[in-house]
Amino acid sequence: MPYNPAFFSLKSIETYINPFTINDIKYQEYIHCKVVEYLEVDRSNRPEKIKVLQIHNLEDFLKGDETNTSERILEIYKIQPFISHKSSV
């Protein structure tokens, strides 16, 4: 997927897919998080590494309880934005 800055904005709440392999078994981790800092940027000022607050209970977080989080460092080239296809009802 080409880089899209909309998915890496500071202070945005995002969901990323982190694919990884352990013992030849492929997994996909879904990470709900709030982007808090760009740790490394490229020459075009696009983030390459970001610090996020990983959200452990999204519903509580959206209701204002930000205590159930942990800091995590993500490398942009290893993750994919999760894009939900919303239907109009």
TrEMBL record:
It comes from the Bacteria. This is WYL domain-containing protein. It comes from Flavobacterium cerinum.
